[in-house]
Amino acid sequence: MSGEIEKGMSVFLDVFRRADKNDDNCLSLDEFKSFFGDGVLTNEELENLFHQIDTHNTNNIDTGELCEYFKSHLGPFKDIFASLEDLSGFVSSALQKMADEYPTETFHQQFTTRFLLKEVSGQFMALTKNLDFACDHLEHEALKDRPGSSQVAVVEPVRSSSAGWVARRTRRQLSTQTSVPGEGMNLLTAEVSRLADLVARLEQKVKIDPVDEDTVTETNKGSLAFIVSRKFAVLEEKDRSFRDNLRTYVDAAGRDDGCVSISVRMFEGTCNYAVYEIWETEEDWKTNFAGAKSKSFRRENVDLLDKPEQLSSMAIPAKWIIKTDAN
User: Fold this and answer.
1) How far apart are CA 261 and CA 280, in angstroms?
2) What is the pLDDT of residues 60-95, one digit of tens each?
3) For position 62, what pLDDT does the model report?
4) pTM of the entire structure?
5) 256 vs 232: CA distance, rounded Å
6) Contact, 172 vs 276, CB < 8 A?
7) What contacts 6, CB < 8 A, 6 or more positions away?
8) How far does Cα 4 stand from its chain's mean position?
9) Range with the lowest mean pLDDT among 206-215, 273-282, 314-323?
10) What is the 3-state secondary structure (H, E, C) of the chain?
11) What b/e readout covers 272-297, taking b as 16+ CB neighbours within 10 angstroms?
12) Mean pLDDT for the chain?
């Protein structure tokens, strides 16, 4: 891409930087899928889009190709992105001036500065709320009438006829044990305690019954629960930030409708994590995956992970996790 970049397009240089995990100044197909997968497009659809953007036919996308693609599709957002560049400069300038002058201001001047800063923040939050609502609505509409497993990040589920193996895996997903000693453990102590309480309650309501086996066919799918395994390899210097991000996500997702259980495992001596989620239905998980909390979790992880998240899932007969009324 030659010459000065057109106003409003600098944001896509930052998008490119965040998507380019190995910093080789080009996006491979895997990097493209990892960053742009939104839980709506299938692997095939994302691959087709990748080749559409790759106008040089190099099997890699460079900054010029990415900017040109979005430039041709900005529509009503063109003026917004241009204004965002100006706004970013205004905010930086105001914060710098505030940092220089605030310590010497009078008591009332400091009050006014704090009020104005909070008011600006509130206005931004109101705009963000409207944008998040629009994003959620559009993704909800996009997921309608989609195939049962359209998420690009979902690895084909492992097939097994061993009910005992499924039961053991399910119990492991219900576990909240960790094996990381030291101060790092403190970051998730509260979450572990919360999950321990959840498991105690589930013991009164949930019975794992791995003995009975069903033959599932296309015409007789039955009622299926959905189990998701997510594995993360975190950059060592980003471990604390990832734990904070993970804690926020686990707390939020655990309160979502349809979430039976969510637990975390950390592996001693490494910065590797595994998150296990059990959902009442695949649709419940898809709603969560496309929601604002999950999108924020994945977006913030882009700069924290050593390699893309590994995500796999498995549907099991819901009666293997039998809910009973607590008496």
Assistant:
1) 9
2) 999 999 999 999 998 888 888 888 888 888 988 898
3) 92
4) 0.45
5) 22
6) yes
7) 71
8) 34
9) 206-215
10) CCCCCCCCCHHHHHHHHHHCCCCCCCECHHHHHHHHCCCCCCHHHHHHHHHHHCCCCCCCECHHHHHHHHHCCCHHHHHHHHHHHHHHHHHHHHHHHHHHHHHHCCHHHHHHHHHHHHHHHHHHHHHHHHHHHHHHHHHHHHHCCCCCCCCCCCECCCCCCCHHHHHHHHHHHHCCCCCCCCHHHHHHHHHHHHHHHHHHHHHHHEEECCCCCCCCECCECCCEEEEEEEEEEECHHHHHHHHHHHHHHHHHHCCCCCEEEEEEEECCCCCEEEEEEEECCHHHHHHHHCCHHHHHHHHHHCCCECCCCEEEEEEEEHHHEEECCCC
11) ebbbbbbbbebebbbbbbbbbbbbeb
12) 77
Contacts 24+ apart (CB under 8 A), 191-194: 191/247, 191/250, 191/251, 191/264, 192/264, 194/251, 194/254
**Structure token pair of residue 139:** 């993704």
> Is 192 or 6 the better-scoring residue by pLDDT?
6
Take residue 200 and report the two structure tokens written for it. Answer: 């105690």
